[in-house]
Design brief:
With 142 residues, the protein is α+β, with helices and mostly antiparallel strands. The protein contains 3 helices and 6 strands.
Length: 142
């Protein structure tokens, strides 16, 4: 099960352009995601941020690996001083006046077997970030 990616899908009552901006504009990202010092949706752009549990924070090291404007954004996700490399992919699908977002976090099996890196923690975290925080930020779906 650990080698299965985490996949979260949600539909937002917002056009693709609005969802894309929320995913790629640093000023918008800080309102629902992490407070990044800088973010550019450009292949090769590297960024980092701290995140984790109340007990331990980790420095996340990321690099944008694929950008298809208003359709797909992928970046690597790893932790300073820990083995492992994973990838986060956001895919956007227009559905009339709404947008379906599919998030896939793959490569979790490459991380050390410690509780903070357990697949279920990633699944719960992404559900909170995408299913609650981003959904609230973009406005509730009817």
């Amino acid at each position: 099960m650990k080698n299965q990616p985490v996949v979260i899908e949600n539909t937002f009552n917002a056009p693709v352009s609005r969802v894309w901006k929320a995913l790629t504009d640093r000023n918008e990202m800080r309102k629902w995601y992490f407070d990044l010092s800088e973010f550019i949706p450009e292949t090769g752009f590297q960024f980092q941020f701290y995140g984790g549990s109340e007990e331990k924070e980790y420095l996340h090291l990321c690099e944008v690996t694929e950008v298809i404007p208003e359709r797909k954004l992928t970046y690597s996700w790893r932790y300073q001083d820990y083995e492992g490399l994973s990838f986060i992919t956001f895919e956007l699908f227009p559905e009339k006046s709404e947008t379906r977002l599919k998030l896939t976090h793959s490569g979790l099996e490459t991380f050390p077997e410690i509780a903070d890196f357990a697949r279920e923690n990633f699944a719960a975290g992404w559900q909170e970030i995408i299913g609650a925080s981003l959904k609230k930020y973009l406005g509730k779906r009817d």
